[in-house]
Amino acid sequence: MTPRLLVINPGSTSTKIAVYAGEEPLFVETIRHDDADLGRFAQVMDQEDYRRKLILAALAKHNLSVADLTAIIGRGGLMRPIPGGVYHVGPQMLFDLRSCRFGTHASNLGAILAHDLATSAGIPSFIADPVVVDEMAPLARYSGHPDITRRSIFHALNHKAVGRRAAAELGRPYEELRLIIAHLGGGVSVGAHERGRVVDVNNALDGDGPFSPERSGGLPAGQLTDWCFAPDAKEADIRRRITGAGGFLAYLGTASGMEIERRIQGGDAKAREVHAAMAYQVAKDIGAMGTVLAGQVDAVILTGGLAHDKALTALICDRVKFLGRVMIFPGEDEMTALALAALRALTDGEAVLTYPPCDWLEKA
Fold it and tell me: Which of 1, 134, 251, 287 makes the best surface tag, with the fewest CB within 10 Å?
């Protein structure tokens, strides 16, 4: 019997859900949440029951219930650093997510909602490849000062998904390949994938790597220090400049890739130069990851929403094609990636992992 899988992906203002029959979606839906509805809740975690009822109503609208499902998989949230893979949702994971001890985000609700609904039906619940996937090699963790250790926070779900897609096209297992994958979206992450593990990657959340539509990327440390100690400096404002109001938005007043494309086509020289500068920085980080893999690169992969921008990808390709084959997988289909992860766990014999791995218990 073909497995039926419910996928739950909570965001700050919406909850995306989908039901798959094997690899085929039966429906995909985005449930929007009004500010007035969310404003009733003091904390994100207080929204659990509200979102659960909406998911059940959406299933009923499609003549489905949790009793019709084989398994449920949720978007992984902020928790302890873990290796990539598919994980059972269990007590320690639920505690870490509910307490928000590693950070607060709506994605924390993914595993919680999956577990609640799955328990009511007596079926398994999973997460896969959350943003906290950490497979970095020891040398990659050095920052240059012992007080700061480089952290792995990146678009792990899409990185792993397109790595497997590329492997299928190349006719070899993902676990045998050396790949450089650049996710180009609201944030940019560039990772070196060596035989199934992301051994080095920039922290795409906290201001590392290339600049992006909304993020400043790695900034010169001395000048950043000047920002921090300016007479009117406020921590919240500086963090906003780094992670929410940098990049395209700071230079051009918009974070919209389509708007920037329109300006370039209209002859806007500044937009063209900023656009080219982002491509330059992405290509430079791809080149750096080429040295991490000692020049042994099976493919360079460009993915994420901005990979739809053919002018941007062309600029990057021109600089990195010396490394080998360049493959482009535009977009970020998180729902399909999660469904395929659950399907591998149920039908392909992929080992389902327990959270947290034993070595992390000692570091907690």
Answer: 1
C-alpha 75, offset from chain centre: 10
Number of neighbours of residue 304 by Cβ within 10 angstroms = 25
Helix (H) or strand (E) holding 299: strand 299-304
Taking the CA atoms of residue 215, residue 282, residue 173 and residue 77 in that order, the dihedral angle to the nearest 10 degrees is -10
Give how far the C-alpha of residue 203 lies from the chain's centroid of Cα atoms, to the nearest Å. 11
Task: Report the alpha-carbon distance of residue 224 to residue 345 in Å, rounded.
Answer: 45
φ/ψ of residue 85, rounded to 5: 140, -175
Could you tell me the pTM of the whole model? 0.91
Task: Give per-residue pLDDT as tens, 122-137.
Answer: 999 999 999 899 999 9
- Please calculate the CA angle 179-280-321 and round it to the nearest 5 degrees: 45
Structure tokens belonging to residue 168: 């299928």
Instruction: Give, rounded to a whole angstrom, the gap between the first and last alpha carbons of the chain.
Output: 41
CB 159 within 8 A of CB 166: no
Please give the Cα distance from 68 to 15 (Å, whole number). Answer: 20
Decide: 355 and 91 in contact? Cβ < 8 Å: no
Q: Is the Cβ–Cβ distance between 55 and 31 less than 8 Å? A: yes
Residue 89, both tokens = 């949702």
Q: Give pLDDT tens digits for 14-29.
A: 999 999 999 999 999 9
Q: Which tokens belong to 276?
A: 């080219």
Residue 165: how many other CB atoms lie within 10 Å: 18
Residue written as token pair 């360079």: 300
Question: CB–CB of 216/226 below 8 Å?
Answer: no
Task: Give every CB contact of residue 281 below 8 A, 6+ residues apart in sequence.
Answer: 209, 210, 211, 217
Asked whether the bond before 130 is cis by omega within 30 degrees of 0, the reply is: no
Q: Which residues of 315-343 are buried (b: 16+ CB within 10 A; e: fewer)?
A: bbbeebeebbebbbbbebbbbbbbbbbbb
Decide: 108 and 127 in contact? Cβ < 8 Å: no
CB-count exposure of residue 270 (10 Å: 0-12, 13-18, 19+): exposed
Mean pLDDT of 55-82: 96
Altogether, the residues listed in the chain come to a count of: 364
Question: Is it the case that residue 364 has pLDDT exceeding 50?
Answer: no
